[in-house]
Amino acid sequence: MKPKIVYVDDEWPNLNAFKAMFRHDYDVILADSAELALSLVQQHKPSVLLADQRLPNMTGVELLELVQATHPNTVRILVTGYDENRPLIDGINKGSIFYYLQKPWNNHQLSALLLRASQHSYNQNLIQNQNTELLKLVDELERFVYSISHDIRAPLMSVLGLIQITRLEPESAPRYLDYMEQSVHKLDTFIRSVIDHYKNLRTENTVRLIDLKALFALVIETQIPQTMRPEVNIKMDIDPTLNLYSDEFRLNLVLGNLVNNAAKYYATNQPYKQLDIKVRAEGNLVTFVIEDNGRGIADKHLGSIFNIFYRIAADNAGSGLGLYLVKETLNKMDGTINVASVLGQFTRFTITIPNGRESQVRG
Amino acid sequence: MDAKAKLEADCLILLDDVPLHNLIADKMLGYNNLLMPRQIFSEGQELLDFLQKPADELPKRILMLVDLMMPEMSGLDIAEHVLELPHEVQSRCRMFIVSSTIDDRDIEAIEQHPAVECFLNKPLDASRVSDILQQPVPNGKWGTAA
Fold it and tell me: A140: which residues sit within 8 A by CB, 6+ positions away?
């Protein structure tokens, strides 16, 4: 895509000459008034705005100042035929001008200037995007460091407390050792989630043909405790005609977390445990529905369950990372997730991901 | 009553969303001869409901050991609710926050909160609780003059 340039001048011969000269290398947009230029900048967000100083209702410097406030990444160049320094000094002092160009311009000089200006604009955009990403990471890091004191230190402090009471009560050691084991597993789960999260952030999608039956078998084996498995009635309904091309690591992460949650939040007094899995293809999209008849989620929590470190249950079963990780992973896959739930009855997660193509498979 | 009086609590409340932490605290307190009657809760609302009891059913000297980070209501949220209780109920309650946090901002917020008497690290060091209870009762608490 060619960089966009808006040129505003009230003299049409200048506008036409400019367009003729630069239309091959740039997407040139012309304006014969400052008002039109403002609306074109708003519409096209150009890399460069060239403004003649002498415009009917406002000066070029005034126009560039306005654009600086609303579109700081548009590089601003002032063009003037007047041999006077006032506008130049004003413009530079107000910080709104990238370059000052005097008429009549030299085509080679202007060409080099436009190239430099559009590169400058591209770099500004890049820096801005990277800054936004960086701010998100810093925020996440801050929350992560904060969570260390709870999600990492708390299980460790439990182990320490258990060691102390085991010394005082050695006859109860087997029971306390079980508790210690649970705390260590909890800590390990948290660390694994963090690692998965950073792997998801850093790696690109690796598309391959997914054997869904094998993937679900793995998910069930790893996420539903062996002792619970015979109690869970699993109904699997996978579209037999579906050839799914996707990232297996990410899909495993998403499905694994959802199935793990189902297993974790079955109510103890449930007469039977049900897990329904449905996979359907529609056009280019594949939809997974994972539904359990567990404890359900109260309405007041539904809007927050995908937030980092958000926990619902007061029994410490979750770290508040799982569903955040699911959501972030789906973002990376261009997928979506929705949840429906009735407290004490069911929770249904519906995820939709685009089906990849065989041509995306590498190697 | 003399503000320097040393008093025993007649009710000890443990509040932590992790049952294991309540168990550890309970055992530690027991081994340090802090054997007053217990109320063990896993959610802030249970504690607030308990404090809503009619005055004649509510113990006179309540010691509350409250966890900081809990899902629905944090220890500091509970401290805010405590400040809204009738003066008569507030004067019966002494609140300590127990946490694994090492974040200075948390510790500062706890130490500066008017409803919280002190911050204790996890795992609970019950001898510290004992030591604090050996100190004079803060003015206005447990029947001492404000």
Answer: A308
pLDDT tens-place string over residues B40-85: 999 999 999 999 999 889 999 999 999 998 888 999 999 999 999 9
Predicted confidence at residue A82, as pLDDT, reads: 59
Q: In whole angstroms, how far apart are CA B50 and each of B40, B47, B58?
A: 11, 5, 8
How near does any CA of chain B get to the CA of A201, in Å?
Answer: 26
The fourth-level CATH superfamily of domain A205-363 is: Histidine kinase-like ATPase, C-terminal domain (3.30.565.10)
H/E segment holding residue A127? helix A107-147
**Residues of A with CB below 8 A from B71's CB?**
311-314
Q: What is the ipTM of this complex?
A: 0.88
Determine contact, residues B72/B44, Cβ cutoff 8 Å: yes
A208's CB contacts (< 8 A; 6+ apart) are: A245, A246, A247, A248, A361
Domain residue ranges in chain A:
4-105, 205-363
Q: What separation in angstroms does the CA of B12 have from each of A209, A231, A289, B37?
A: 60, 40, 47, 6
User: Which chain A positions have a beta carbon within 8 Å of B27's beta carbon?
Assistant: 165, 168-169
- pLDDT confidence bin for A242, thresholds 50/70/90: very high
Structure tokens belonging to residue B92: 């019966």
What radius of gyration do chain B's Cα atoms show?
14
Q: How far is CA A363 from CA A207, A332, B99, in A?
A: 11, 22, 52
Spatial distance between the Cα atoms of A245 and A243, rounded to a whole number of angstroms? 7
Contact A150 B100 (CB under 8 A): yes
Could you give the C-alpha distances from A55 to A85, A94, B64, in angstroms and in order? Answer: 17, 19, 74
Q: How confident is the model at residue B1 (pLDDT cuts 50, 70, 90)?
A: very low
Closest Cβ opposite residue B103 in set A146, A162, A313: A146
Specify the pLDDT at position B146. Answer: 72
- CATH code of A4-105, in short, is 3.40.50.2300
**Range B107-126 average pLDDT:** 94
Domain B11-134 is classified in which CATH homologous superfamily? Response regulator (3.40.50.2300)
Q: Does B28 touch chain A (CB under 8 A)?
A: yes
Is A257 within 8 Å of A297 (Cβ atoms)? no
Query: What's the pLDDT score for residue A316?
Result: 52
Q: Tell me whether residue B75 is exposed, middle or buried, using C-beta atoms within 10 angstroms of its C-beta: 0 to 12, 13 to 18, 19 or more.
A: buried
